[in-house]
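Convert to structure. Protein one:
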Amino acid sequence: MEKLMIKNVLNKFRFVRIALVGSVGFPFIVASNAFAQAAPPPPAPAAEVERVIVTGSLIPTAEEVGPNPVFSINRDLINKSGAGTTTEQLLQRQPVIGGSNIPVQNNGTSQSGPSGTAALSLRGLDPGATLVLIDRRRVAAFPGSALSGYGFVDLTTIPITAVQSIDILKDGASTTYGSDAVAGVVNFNLYKDYRGAQVTIQYGNTLDKDAAEYKGDILFGVGNDTTSITGNIFYYKHHDMFNHDRGNSLVPPFLSSNAVPWNLRLTVAAIEEAGGTPFPTTGSAEYGTPPDNANGLVPASDYIYFTRRPRGSILPGFNFNLYSSS
């Protein structure tokens, strides 16, 4: 009976021992499998990079890509703008150019340059800082200069009907073109392969019929596959208009007190020698002015003399708008 019990106890012990060994070995196998799955991949071979050397700043690019902003106006936009009478009138109305930067000169003012010219100035700079090209080539400047002394291209010599498109470089390009392109570049592309003929006639006037505008233009072209000839005949005239032609500009807000007719400061001896009558005074000098509406030929004896400037004190100021152009 005792032997049998001991044998049963030994059998239970063997069973438990075997179970413990099995339970210890199972997680070890799982751990071994997890370690095998996390092994890192072999390193990839290093990529070779080709060396690039930049030898200049003017690198050719695709035609559609440009380093600077370019504003282009084609013939369709010119026709739809309604401002294609003259070149300067078209450019005055573009948002990239201020209207005051293209003054149309006349014999009455001669501002910024010789009379009868139209100067282009991008970004409000001097006309000499804007480069004007025709078919991407420089052209001879106007035989005169702006008030700054720089030359410019007269826009009135470029007929707008002969222009196929206009390219405006809105940023400075002095590094590419030189110091005359500090403000930008404007390039006029003319017709080169036009076929046929086109006649344009235009007339306009104000309601007062005193500022008529005339335009006549003939564009023609002939050619074949090897030769092309394109020509243009252009005529334009705009009648003058003065400030005294309109009620709103007939009388300025303030009349001049020290301009033509001049408030001359003269010695009493000079007045008497010229035949004038000095104002009774004990001073040695007086002011003199010609009468109203003088034409420059009034003799000194008709001048008005006073101890102060006559214009603006005892006499009304001079109305410049009676003689200045609008």
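Protein two, convert as well:
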Amino acid sequence: MQGKLIVIAIGGNSLIEDPKKVTVDAQYRAAEKTAHHIADIIEKGNRVVIVHGNGPQVGYILFRSEYARKVLHSVPLDSCVADTQGAIGYQLQKALDNEFIARGMSNRAVTVVTQVEVDPADPSFGNPTKPIGSFMTEEDALEHQKNFGWAVKEDAGRGWRRVVPSPKPQSIIELDTIKFLSESGVAVIAAGGGGIPVIRDEEGAFWGKEAVIDKDLAAAILAKSLKADAFIISTAVEKVCLDYNKPTQRAIDEMTTEEARKYSEEGQFAPGSMLPKIQAIVDYVESTGNLGMITDPEHIPSALKGEAGTRIVR
């Protein structure tokens, strides 16, 4: 697979190897491992655009903001996403550049702070469901609801959390810039955390919204818009499984988009985990006819050779 354009989406959790040891340095060490696997692809002459998640990292920013609310201003969600785009982008960019230097490659990486347009009439704005931030007791959650106007919900028996809108991405504002950089041979890190959600007013100006965008859906739009030759979603497992965590669990090497839809309707994929990844891949594959894959960071290079991961085809 020489000289292809590949969009790779990696999860924010992939930068946290040990939940008990969450430091900036530890996240960078995890970024180094991901960068090593991605550099293998670039070294073979392929161009890469990387989209990263930011769920845990946004949660940390909000947690700090809560602790400091008596002495400092709060941070709106669009700014939280922008902050993580810069911080995580810097870690991945540095890790890739150092990997290129170690291999004697002339390639370079760059991070693009990316806005993603959403529909102001998206139904999620009237029904926020995306959990963010830390877990709370019911008492604390209701206090936050009263004092800060948060929408809060109980999260699967684990505690209460703030929930926010998660509108569907419509378009990538910086698409032309990302395309130009990619065509110039630069490894581009873009649409981090699904992009900064913005709406357009009647005069065409952009305004940030208190929301988060699913990074896999945004990555699919980016892959389609760039006419990427392949779209890979990197996650915690090497292959997609049916009957996950059951005695009958079985891995899937390849499935059609029709089979993926069937399994989704049967409830095979968890709504907050594998389901949005399957939906994003199906959207991309049906729109382009090109290859979609789901695997873990370690197996990205071999997945492109057809030796690992789950392939989704039309």
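The CA atoms of residues 51 and 219 lie 6 Å apart. The first strand starts at residue 5 and ends at 10.
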